[in-house]
Amino acid sequence: MAIPKVFITRRLPEKCIKPLQQVAEVKMWSEEYKPVPREVLLQEVQTSHGLLTMLSDRVDETLLAQAPQLKCVANLAVGYDNIDLEACRLHHVIPCNTPDVLTETTADLVFALLMASGRRLIEANDYLKQGKWQEWGPFLMAGADIHHKTIGIVGMGRIGTAVARRAQGFAMNVIYHNRRRNVEAESELGARFCGFESLLETADFVVNLIPYTETTKGLFNQNAFTKMKKTALFINAGRGATVDEDALYQALLEGEIAGAGLDVFSQEPIPKEHPLLTLEQVVALPHIGSASVETRKQMISLCCKNLMRTLAGEKPITPIETSR
Ligand SMILES: NC(=O)C1=CN([C@@H]2O[C@H](COP(=O)(O)OP(=O)(O)OC[C@H]3O[C@@H](n4cnc5c(N)ncnc54)[C@H](OP(=O)(O)O)[C@@H]3O)[C@@H](O)[C@H]2O)C=CC1
Ligand SMILES: O=CC(=O)O
Description:
Elements: E1 5-8, H1 14-21, E2 25-28, H2 38-44, E3 50-53, H3 61-65, E4 72-75, H4 85-90, E5 94-96, H5 103-118, H6 121-129, E6 150-154, H7 158-169, E7 173-177, H8 183-189, E8 192-193, H9 196-202, E9 205-208, H10 222-227, E10 233-236, H11 245-253, E11 259-262, E12 282-284, H12 293-311
Parallel strand pairs: 1-2, 1-3, 3-4, 4-5, 6-7, 6-9, 7-8, 9-10, 10-11, 11-12
Helix pairs in contact: 1-12, 5-7
Bound molecules: NADPH dihydro-nicotinamide-adenine-dinucleotide phosphate (NDP) and the ligand O=CC(=O)O.
């Protein structure tokens, strides 16, 4: 093959993609914070052998049908709900993601979000900076304890397990729900397997870390929030669409649950006017789970390696593997 062509759908630091540039002709979308327009992507794939995509890029049948030379899609994320895996299989395109390299960084953020929500950190910070702090009071910005409470992790995979390890350090009781039992988490962390409803009824902090699939779509619905304790906090770092956000808003408004920490939303970026953003008991972040400089560099490097290997006819390091 002549020198292969790779298209990167967002501007990335030149330094990070240097190895890839040595083996491929690399073209990059010029913007760092604006996604490549769909029509530009559809144009670029026509001559590309490799794509480095963001989680906001849709890789579907329409795109793949226009990409006769495409061999690999390297997604800069561990989640891959933006990629049609069956269409990739039919078009002989190898999809890759970035597991493991982001696990600990994401777990840090999940735990930070849990603590910020439980102890009302953002609210307290705003209160002070807005000049509202006039007097100290015994219940001023009093929140919920974290230590010795029960954390219920829905999606005890790589990140869920790393969150459970952090929870151990806070002497939390760890329960979890998966489709299959995670025997290692049980023996190493003392985590206890639970049915979904039983977890909702028991946990003080319900942490969602499941991928978005047809099965998990809207899993956290009105029924789920009704089952949770009125004092419970809901932390979502999985995917927004696993939650019925109208039901979440109602549950918060009516006091069915006490608060929420959200890193992901059905629509991203979430519109400023969204009802969830009007609630002071909601801590909201712009999908920054894996956003440390070190980890983002490692994710880019892994994407480049996956592309380089695939274009050289070798097996990539992290092809997407699924048992769903
Ligand atoms: N906010 C952010 O920035 C980030 C978000 N993420 C999100 O976190 C997700 C998890 O990542 P990671 O831990 O690496 O992935 P893993 O595949 O290691 O873990 C996913 C877990 O979810 C469980 N699961 C899957 N489907 C279901 C289901 N229908 N019901 C119950 N449990 C289910 C799986 O267990 P089993 O198969 O036994 O059911 C598995 O334990 C990603 O898919 C992504 O959506 C990831 C990184 C950063
Ligand atoms: O949401 C981020 C990911 O890596 O998945």
